[in-house]
Write a structure and sequence with these properties.
344 residues, globular, alpha/beta
Amino acid sequence: MKLGLGAGYWSSGPPAGIIENLKVAEEMGFDSVWTAEAYGSDAITPLAWWGANTSKIKLGTSIAQMSARTPAATAMAAMTLDHLSGGRFILGIGASGPQVVEGWYGQPYPRPLERTREYIEIMRQIFAREKPVEFHGKHYDMPYTGANGMGLGKPLKSTVHPLRSDIPIYLAAEGPKNVALAAEIADGWLPLFFSPKADKDYRASLNNGFSKPNAHKTAAEFEVASIVSIIVTDDIEAGANMVRPMLALYVGGMGAKGANFHYDVIARLGYEDECARIQQLYLSGKKAEAMAAIPLEMVQDIALIGPPGKIKDDLAMWKETCLTTMIVSGPPAMLRQVAEIVLD
Protein backbone atom coordinates (compact mmCIF):
# COMPACT_ATOMS: atom_id res chain seq x y z
CA MET A 1 0.00 0.00 0.00
CA LYS A 2 1.31 3.43 -1.00
CA LEU A 3 0.33 6.81 0.41
CA GLY A 4 -0.68 9.93 -1.47
CA LEU A 5 -1.15 13.42 -0.04
CA GLY A 6 -4.53 14.93 -0.86
CA ALA A 7 -4.47 18.68 -1.53
CA GLY A 8 -7.95 18.74 -3.09
CA TYR A 9 -9.50 21.91 -4.42
CA TRP A 10 -9.70 25.21 -2.57
CA SER A 11 -12.51 26.90 -0.71
CA SER A 12 -11.75 30.59 -0.17
CA GLY A 13 -8.05 30.27 -0.94
CA PRO A 14 -4.98 28.02 -0.99
CA PRO A 15 -4.82 25.42 1.80
CA ALA A 16 -2.76 26.61 4.73
CA GLY A 17 0.53 24.85 5.39
CA ILE A 18 0.58 22.91 2.11
CA ILE A 19 4.34 23.40 1.55
CA GLU A 20 5.14 22.02 5.00
CA ASN A 21 2.77 19.11 4.35
CA LEU A 22 4.55 18.36 1.09
CA LYS A 23 7.94 18.36 2.79
CA VAL A 24 6.68 15.98 5.48
CA ALA A 25 5.07 13.75 2.83
CA GLU A 26 8.34 13.45 0.89
CA GLU A 27 10.29 12.87 4.08
CA MET A 28 7.91 10.12 5.23
CA GLY A 29 7.93 8.25 1.92
CA PHE A 30 4.62 9.32 0.39
CA ASP A 31 4.41 8.27 -3.24
CA SER A 32 2.29 11.10 -4.64
CA VAL A 33 0.40 14.36 -4.07
CA TRP A 34 -3.01 15.01 -5.64
CA THR A 35 -4.97 18.15 -6.51
CA ALA A 36 -8.55 18.42 -7.73
CA GLU A 37 -10.98 20.86 -9.30
CA ALA A 38 -14.72 21.50 -9.20
CA TYR A 39 -15.75 25.05 -10.07
CA GLY A 40 -13.08 27.19 -8.45
CA SER A 41 -9.36 26.45 -8.22
CA ASP A 42 -7.98 24.37 -11.08
CA ALA A 43 -6.04 21.12 -10.65
CA ILE A 44 -2.94 21.82 -12.74
CA THR A 45 -1.61 25.25 -11.69
CA PRO A 46 -1.12 24.33 -8.00
CA LEU A 47 0.88 21.23 -8.96
CA ALA A 48 3.27 23.36 -11.01
CA TRP A 49 3.69 25.90 -8.20
CA TRP A 50 3.92 23.46 -5.28
CA GLY A 51 5.79 20.82 -7.23
CA ALA A 52 8.76 23.18 -7.50
CA ASN A 53 9.24 22.60 -3.76
CA THR A 54 9.55 18.82 -4.23
CA SER A 55 12.06 16.49 -5.81
CA LYS A 56 10.72 12.92 -5.61
CA ILE A 57 6.99 12.82 -5.01
CA LYS A 58 4.71 12.20 -8.00
CA LEU A 59 2.31 14.99 -8.98
CA GLY A 60 -1.24 13.91 -9.82
CA THR A 61 -4.57 15.48 -10.73
CA SER A 62 -7.56 13.88 -9.07
CA ILE A 63 -9.28 15.04 -11.18
CA ALA A 64 -8.81 17.36 -14.14
CA GLN A 65 -12.29 17.76 -15.61
CA MET A 66 -12.58 16.83 -19.26
CA SER A 67 -15.06 19.58 -20.07
CA ALA A 68 -12.64 22.22 -18.77
CA ARG A 69 -10.18 21.61 -21.60
CA THR A 70 -10.03 20.06 -25.03
CA PRO A 71 -8.04 16.82 -25.25
CA ALA A 72 -5.20 18.74 -26.90
CA ALA A 73 -5.12 21.39 -24.15
CA THR A 74 -5.00 18.72 -21.45
CA ALA A 75 -2.26 16.85 -23.30
CA MET A 76 -0.24 20.08 -23.64
CA ALA A 77 -0.52 20.75 -19.89
CA ALA A 78 0.43 17.15 -19.10
CA MET A 79 3.52 17.19 -21.33
CA THR A 80 4.58 20.57 -19.96
CA LEU A 81 4.28 19.57 -16.31
CA ASP A 82 5.88 16.19 -16.96
CA HIS A 83 8.92 17.98 -18.38
CA LEU A 84 9.06 20.50 -15.53
CA SER A 85 8.81 17.77 -12.89
CA GLY A 86 11.32 15.40 -14.48
CA GLY A 87 8.73 12.76 -15.36
CA ARG A 88 6.69 12.78 -12.15
CA PHE A 89 3.26 13.76 -13.51
CA ILE A 90 0.15 11.58 -13.33
CA LEU A 91 -2.83 12.78 -15.36
CA GLY A 92 -6.08 11.95 -13.59
CA ILE A 93 -9.14 12.95 -15.61
CA GLY A 94 -12.88 12.55 -15.26
CA ALA A 95 -16.18 13.49 -16.89
CA SER A 96 -17.51 15.19 -13.73
CA GLY A 97 -21.32 15.43 -13.59
CA PRO A 98 -24.07 17.18 -15.52
CA GLN A 99 -24.60 19.92 -12.92
CA VAL A 100 -21.00 21.12 -13.21
CA VAL A 101 -20.52 20.44 -16.92
CA GLU A 102 -23.74 22.13 -18.00
CA GLY A 103 -23.88 24.74 -15.24
CA TRP A 104 -20.23 25.80 -15.01
CA TYR A 105 -18.74 24.95 -18.40
CA GLY A 106 -21.90 25.61 -20.39
CA GLN A 107 -21.58 22.35 -22.31
CA PRO A 108 -23.90 19.38 -22.79
CA TYR A 109 -23.23 16.12 -20.97
CA PRO A 110 -23.68 13.47 -23.65
CA ARG A 111 -22.56 9.83 -23.42
CA PRO A 112 -19.69 10.32 -20.94
CA LEU A 113 -18.11 6.88 -21.46
CA GLU A 114 -17.97 7.29 -25.22
CA ARG A 115 -16.60 10.81 -24.84
CA THR A 116 -13.95 9.62 -22.37
CA ARG A 117 -12.76 6.92 -24.76
CA GLU A 118 -12.29 9.49 -27.54
CA TYR A 119 -10.59 11.98 -25.20
CA ILE A 120 -7.97 9.48 -24.06
CA GLU A 121 -7.36 8.17 -27.57
CA ILE A 122 -6.57 11.68 -28.79
CA MET A 123 -4.21 12.37 -25.89
CA ARG A 124 -2.34 9.13 -26.45
CA GLN A 125 -1.84 10.09 -30.10
CA ILE A 126 -0.43 13.44 -28.98
CA PHE A 127 1.89 11.84 -26.42
CA ALA A 128 3.13 9.29 -28.95
CA ARG A 129 4.03 12.04 -31.44
CA GLU A 130 4.33 9.54 -34.24
CA LYS A 131 2.44 11.64 -36.78
CA PRO A 132 0.16 14.68 -37.04
CA VAL A 133 -3.03 14.08 -35.07
CA GLU A 134 -6.18 13.34 -37.03
CA PHE A 135 -9.32 12.15 -35.26
CA HIS A 136 -12.95 12.32 -36.33
CA GLY A 137 -15.26 10.91 -33.68
CA LYS A 138 -18.75 11.58 -32.41
CA HIS A 139 -17.52 14.14 -29.86
CA TYR A 140 -14.16 15.44 -31.08
CA ASP A 141 -13.15 16.48 -34.57
CA MET A 142 -9.46 17.15 -35.34
CA PRO A 143 -8.94 18.98 -37.65
CA TYR A 144 -12.40 20.51 -37.40
CA THR A 145 -14.59 19.68 -40.37
CA GLY A 146 -17.89 21.20 -39.25
CA ALA A 147 -19.98 23.64 -41.23
CA ASN A 148 -19.09 26.56 -38.94
CA GLY A 149 -15.34 26.33 -39.60
CA MET A 150 -13.21 28.03 -42.22
CA GLY A 151 -11.97 24.75 -43.63
CA LEU A 152 -8.35 25.73 -43.03
CA GLY A 153 -7.45 23.29 -40.27
CA LYS A 154 -4.74 20.74 -40.90
CA PRO A 155 -3.41 17.84 -38.83
CA LEU A 156 -0.68 19.01 -36.45
CA LYS A 157 2.00 17.31 -34.37
CA SER A 158 3.11 18.68 -31.01
CA THR A 159 6.15 20.96 -31.22
CA VAL A 160 7.18 19.54 -27.84
CA HIS A 161 8.83 16.16 -27.73
CA PRO A 162 7.25 14.59 -24.63
CA LEU A 163 9.66 13.61 -21.89
CA ARG A 164 7.58 10.40 -21.70
CA SER A 165 5.36 9.17 -24.48
CA ASP A 166 3.45 7.08 -21.96
CA ILE A 167 2.42 9.68 -19.36
CA PRO A 168 0.14 7.70 -17.03
CA ILE A 169 -3.57 8.45 -17.33
CA TYR A 170 -5.89 7.58 -14.46
CA LEU A 171 -9.64 7.71 -14.87
CA ALA A 172 -12.05 8.90 -12.19
CA ALA A 173 -15.00 6.52 -12.29
CA GLU A 174 -17.85 5.48 -10.02
CA GLY A 175 -20.34 3.38 -11.99
CA PRO A 176 -19.47 -0.24 -12.89
CA LYS A 177 -19.30 0.46 -16.64
CA ASN A 178 -17.00 3.43 -16.14
CA VAL A 179 -14.77 1.44 -13.79
CA ALA A 180 -14.51 -1.26 -16.47
CA LEU A 181 -13.63 1.44 -19.00
CA ALA A 182 -10.81 2.65 -16.72
CA ALA A 183 -9.36 -0.87 -16.63
CA GLU A 184 -9.62 -1.15 -20.40
CA ILE A 185 -8.09 2.15 -21.56
CA ALA A 186 -6.29 3.78 -18.61
CA ASP A 187 -3.28 3.19 -16.36
CA GLY A 188 -5.22 3.57 -13.15
CA TRP A 189 -8.59 4.16 -11.52
CA LEU A 190 -9.51 7.03 -9.17
CA PRO A 191 -12.54 6.14 -7.05
CA LEU A 192 -13.90 8.93 -4.86
CA PHE A 193 -15.19 6.66 -2.12
CA PHE A 194 -13.63 3.23 -1.62
CA SER A 195 -14.81 0.49 0.71
CA PRO A 196 -13.32 -2.97 1.30
CA LYS A 197 -16.83 -4.41 1.53
CA ALA A 198 -17.30 -3.67 -2.18
CA ASP A 199 -13.94 -5.06 -3.30
CA LYS A 200 -15.49 -8.10 -4.98
CA ASP A 201 -17.70 -5.84 -7.10
CA TYR A 202 -14.81 -3.49 -7.90
CA ARG A 203 -12.67 -6.40 -9.06
CA ALA A 204 -15.50 -7.76 -11.22
CA SER A 205 -15.86 -4.40 -12.99
CA LEU A 206 -12.10 -4.04 -13.40
CA ASN A 207 -11.77 -7.57 -14.77
CA ASN A 208 -14.42 -6.74 -17.36
CA GLY A 209 -12.04 -4.08 -18.64
CA PHE A 210 -8.86 -6.12 -18.37
CA SER A 211 -10.50 -8.87 -20.42
CA LYS A 212 -10.97 -6.65 -23.48
CA PRO A 213 -8.73 -7.62 -26.42
CA ASN A 214 -6.73 -4.38 -26.48
CA ALA A 215 -6.72 -3.54 -22.79
CA HIS A 216 -4.01 -0.97 -22.02
CA LYS A 217 -2.73 -2.61 -18.82
CA THR A 218 -2.87 -5.92 -17.01
CA ALA A 219 -4.34 -6.18 -13.52
CA ALA A 220 -0.84 -6.47 -12.07
CA GLU A 221 0.25 -3.19 -13.70
CA PHE A 222 -2.89 -1.23 -12.87
CA GLU A 223 -3.09 1.37 -10.08
CA VAL A 224 -6.08 2.22 -7.89
CA ALA A 225 -5.75 5.43 -5.87
CA SER A 226 -8.56 6.66 -3.64
CA ILE A 227 -9.13 9.31 -1.01
CA VAL A 228 -9.32 7.55 2.37
CA SER A 229 -9.95 9.48 5.57
CA ILE A 230 -7.55 8.16 8.22
CA ILE A 231 -8.17 9.81 11.59
CA VAL A 232 -6.05 8.78 14.55
CA THR A 233 -8.13 9.38 17.68
CA ASP A 234 -9.40 7.67 20.81
CA ASP A 235 -12.85 9.20 20.23
CA ILE A 236 -14.26 7.33 17.23
CA GLU A 237 -17.53 9.25 17.15
CA ALA A 238 -15.68 12.58 17.15
CA GLY A 239 -13.45 11.26 14.38
CA ALA A 240 -16.52 10.26 12.37
CA ASN A 241 -17.86 13.80 12.76
CA MET A 242 -14.83 14.99 10.80
CA VAL A 243 -15.93 12.82 7.85
CA ARG A 244 -19.69 13.40 8.00
CA PRO A 245 -19.65 16.92 6.44
CA MET A 246 -17.97 15.59 3.27
CA LEU A 247 -20.28 12.58 3.07
CA ALA A 248 -23.34 14.79 3.53
CA LEU A 249 -22.15 17.16 0.81
CA TYR A 250 -21.42 14.48 -1.76
CA VAL A 251 -24.37 12.20 -1.01
CA GLY A 252 -26.79 15.04 -0.45
CA GLY A 253 -25.78 17.91 -2.65
CA MET A 254 -23.01 17.16 -5.15
CA GLY A 255 -25.35 16.35 -8.01
CA ALA A 256 -29.03 16.61 -8.81
CA LYS A 257 -31.57 14.21 -7.40
CA GLY A 258 -31.58 11.15 -9.63
CA ALA A 259 -28.24 12.11 -11.20
CA ASN A 260 -25.81 12.05 -8.29
CA PHE A 261 -23.11 9.45 -8.96
CA HIS A 262 -21.60 9.83 -5.47
CA TYR A 263 -24.98 9.06 -3.92
CA ASP A 264 -25.15 5.90 -6.02
CA VAL A 265 -21.73 4.67 -4.79
CA ILE A 266 -22.73 4.88 -1.12
CA ALA A 267 -26.20 3.49 -1.79
CA ARG A 268 -24.62 0.42 -3.42
CA LEU A 269 -22.84 -0.28 -0.14
CA GLY A 270 -26.24 -1.08 1.34
CA TYR A 271 -27.38 2.38 2.42
CA GLU A 272 -30.22 3.11 -0.02
CA ASP A 273 -32.64 4.32 2.66
CA GLU A 274 -30.01 6.32 4.52
CA CYS A 275 -28.86 8.03 1.32
CA ALA A 276 -32.41 8.98 0.41
CA ARG A 277 -32.86 10.54 3.85
CA ILE A 278 -29.53 12.38 3.73
CA GLN A 279 -30.27 13.79 0.29
CA GLN A 280 -33.78 14.86 1.24
CA LEU A 281 -32.49 16.74 4.28
CA TYR A 282 -29.54 18.29 2.47
CA LEU A 283 -31.56 19.55 -0.48
CA SER A 284 -34.07 21.00 1.99
CA GLY A 285 -31.33 23.13 3.49
CA LYS A 286 -31.05 21.03 6.65
CA LYS A 287 -27.34 20.32 6.40
CA ALA A 288 -26.75 19.69 10.10
CA GLU A 289 -29.58 17.16 10.16
CA ALA A 290 -28.22 15.52 7.01
CA MET A 291 -24.85 15.04 8.74
CA ALA A 292 -26.55 13.67 11.85
CA ALA A 293 -28.42 11.14 9.68
CA ILE A 294 -25.14 9.49 8.61
CA PRO A 295 -24.65 6.33 10.68
CA LEU A 296 -21.26 5.52 12.16
CA GLU A 297 -21.17 2.26 10.19
CA MET A 298 -21.37 4.18 6.89
CA VAL A 299 -18.43 6.35 7.87
CA GLN A 300 -16.34 3.39 8.97
CA ASP A 301 -17.03 1.58 5.70
CA ILE A 302 -15.07 4.25 3.81
CA ALA A 303 -12.67 5.54 6.48
CA LEU A 304 -10.15 4.35 9.06
CA ILE A 305 -10.86 5.91 12.45
CA GLY A 306 -9.61 5.12 15.93
CA PRO A 307 -6.44 4.67 17.98
CA PRO A 308 -3.32 3.40 16.16
CA GLY A 309 -3.87 -0.23 17.15
CA LYS A 310 -7.41 -0.32 15.80
CA ILE A 311 -6.42 1.39 12.55
CA LYS A 312 -3.56 -1.05 12.08
CA ASP A 313 -5.90 -4.01 12.63
CA ASP A 314 -8.54 -2.59 10.26
CA LEU A 315 -5.86 -1.77 7.69
CA ALA A 316 -5.21 -5.47 7.08
CA MET A 317 -8.58 -5.76 5.34
CA TRP A 318 -7.86 -2.73 3.15
CA LYS A 319 -4.50 -4.16 2.08
CA GLU A 320 -6.28 -7.24 0.71
CA THR A 321 -8.32 -5.13 -1.74
CA CYS A 322 -7.47 -3.85 -5.23
CA LEU A 323 -6.56 -0.46 -3.73
CA THR A 324 -2.88 0.45 -4.26
CA THR A 325 -2.71 4.05 -2.95
CA MET A 326 -4.50 5.72 -0.05
CA ILE A 327 -4.79 9.49 -0.57
CA VAL A 328 -4.86 11.11 2.86
CA SER A 329 -4.78 14.61 4.29
CA GLY A 330 -4.20 16.26 7.63
CA PRO A 331 -1.65 18.31 9.58
CA PRO A 332 2.02 17.28 9.59
CA ALA A 333 1.83 15.39 12.90
CA MET A 334 -1.06 13.27 11.62
CA LEU A 335 0.69 12.64 8.30
CA ARG A 336 3.66 11.27 10.24
CA GLN A 337 1.38 9.04 12.32
CA VAL A 338 -0.43 7.75 9.25
CA ALA A 339 2.85 7.03 7.46
CA GLU A 340 4.17 5.10 10.44
CA ILE A 341 0.99 2.99 10.53
CA VAL A 342 0.39 2.40 6.82
CA LEU A 343 3.96 2.14 5.54
CA ASP A 344 5.23 -0.03 8.43
